[in-house]
């Protein structure tokens, strides 16, 4: 099969012929229809997040099941199903998974995120000569990928199979932040700092959960206009406006109940904390490029009883079917968020534009191109 392989951060992604993978116990083989392009991949491409090389990236995917591995006798999945695959692939057996905390799955972090392997301690990807190739999540920047059945959900016919690729990360991560991290209540006020693929979905899901104010904060008017179209009640261009002053003016001098930070940079952390009211919750979601730190004013956090609650993905086995339902019901306008399509051969161009901040919402690798 063709795959976009990262061998050298100086050379970037290169399309190669590698072996088509095969599913093992508790896994399925998916013929990729589309793969979303995320900042997390970008950090690995640029060498800012350590990961074994060579590797195939791509961690939010849609496609058709073409083979089912052994050990799936109790699964309702079948060959021919169109599915979404989630980036956070719980093993289903560790103590965290037993508690329902798929987002804290130990083998996912220890084996997949550190070693590029699945849960038998081996990758499913190999070069034509047998060379081992690490996989970032399922490694979906390829024509086929293997996914544990714990992290796939069927897509109904009403869900677009190309744009639906972003359900497994951009939508799932947003849902986890709103539902699990913040537990947004009806009537609360929300700020969303950085309105890319994840931030755009936080806006929509916050509105669906009944947020009164949803304030989008970004640095370009084009992105802010798109955010307003998706349901933001107010917008702030932080390149030209003071975030704290603008947010407090909108909220009657109180600040927001919840501030989401969706990019992983110190300056966006500062904006999220500046927007927060006394007793508010700041939910950081974006991954930083390597080891980064953000400052927190200690006395203000303590005296004003503010909380910082990290949110990584969601609880895949429960939440992935839920976000598929949101997409199918058009509560989340996932199709509007996908603003660009690239072929597998041109994926490097898309990631370059993403690095330059020139992708609105989310781009996808479209295997039909």
From TrEMBL:
Question: Which SUPFAM superfamilies does UniProt cross-reference here?
Answer: GroES-like (SSF50129), NAD(P)-binding Rossmann-fold domains (SSF51735)
- Pfam families in UniProt: ADH_N, ADH_zinc_N
Enoyl reductase (ER) domain residues: 12-365
InterPro entries, per this entry? ADH-like_C, ADH-like_N, ER, GroES-like_sf, NAD(P)-bd_dom_sf
**Among its keywords, does the record have Zinc?**
yes
Key words of the record: Metal-binding, Oxidoreductase, Zinc
Which cofactors does the annotated protein need, by name?
A: Zn(2+)
| Family statement drawn from the similarity comment of this UniProt entry | Belongs to the zinc-containing alcohol dehydrogenase family.
PANTHER family, alphabetized? GROES-LIKE ZINC-BINDING ALCOHOL DEHYDROGENASE FAMILY PROTEIN (PTHR43350:SF2), NAD-DEPENDENT ALCOHOL DEHYDROGENASE (PTHR43350)
Q: What is the name attached to this protein's record?
A: Zinc-binding dehydrogenase
**Taxonomic source organism:** Flaviflexus equikiangi
Q: What is the lineage of its organism?
A: Bacteria, Bacillati, Actinomycetota, Actinomycetes, Actinomycetales
């Amino acid at each position: 099969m063709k795959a976009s392989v990262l061998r050298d951060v100086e050379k970037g992604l290169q399309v190669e012929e590698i072996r088509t993978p095969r599913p093992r116990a508790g896994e399925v083989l998916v013929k990729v229809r589309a793969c979303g392009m995320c900042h997390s991949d970008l950090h690995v491409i640029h060498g800012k997040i350590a990961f074994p090389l060579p590797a195939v990236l791509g961690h939010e995917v849609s496609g058709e099941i073409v083979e089912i591995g052994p050990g799936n006798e109790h699964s309702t999945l079948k060959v021919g199903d169109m599915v979404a695959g989630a980036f956070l692939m719980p093993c289903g057996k560790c103590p965290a998974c037993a508690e329902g905390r798929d987002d804290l799955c130990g083998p996912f972090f220890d084996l997949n995120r550190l070693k590029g392997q699945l849960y038998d301690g081996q990758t499913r990807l190999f070069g034509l000569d047998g060379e081992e190739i690490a996989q970032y999540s399922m490694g979906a920047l390829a024509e086929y990928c293997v996914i544990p059945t714990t992290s796939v959900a069927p897509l109904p016919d009403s869900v677009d199979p190309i744009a639906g690729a972003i359900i497994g990360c951009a939508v799932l991560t947003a849902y986890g932040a709103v539902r699990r991290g913040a537990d947004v209540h009806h009537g609360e006020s929300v700020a969303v700092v950085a309105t890319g693929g994840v931030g755009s979905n936080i806006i929509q899901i916050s509105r669906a959960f009944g947020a009164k104010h949803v304030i989008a904060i970004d640095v370009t008017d084009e992105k802010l206009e798109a955010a307003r179209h998706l349901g933001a009640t107010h917008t702030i261009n932080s390149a030209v406006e003071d975030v704290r002053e603008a947010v407090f003016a909108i909220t009657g001098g109180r600040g927001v109940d919840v501030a989401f930070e969706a990019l992983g940079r110190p300056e966006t952390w500062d904006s999220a904390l500046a927007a927060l009211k006394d007793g508010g919750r700041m939910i950081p979601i974006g991954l930083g490029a390597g080891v980064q730190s953000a400052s927190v004013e200690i006395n203000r956090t303590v005296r004003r009883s503010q909380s910082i609650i990290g949110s990584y993905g969601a609880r895949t086995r429960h939440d992935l079917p839920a976000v598929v339902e949101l997409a199918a019901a058009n509560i989340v306008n996932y199709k509007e968020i996908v603003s660009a399509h690239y072929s597998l051969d041109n994926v490097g161009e898309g990631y370059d534009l993403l690095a330059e901040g020139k992708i609105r919402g989310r781009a996808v690798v479209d295997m039909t191109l």
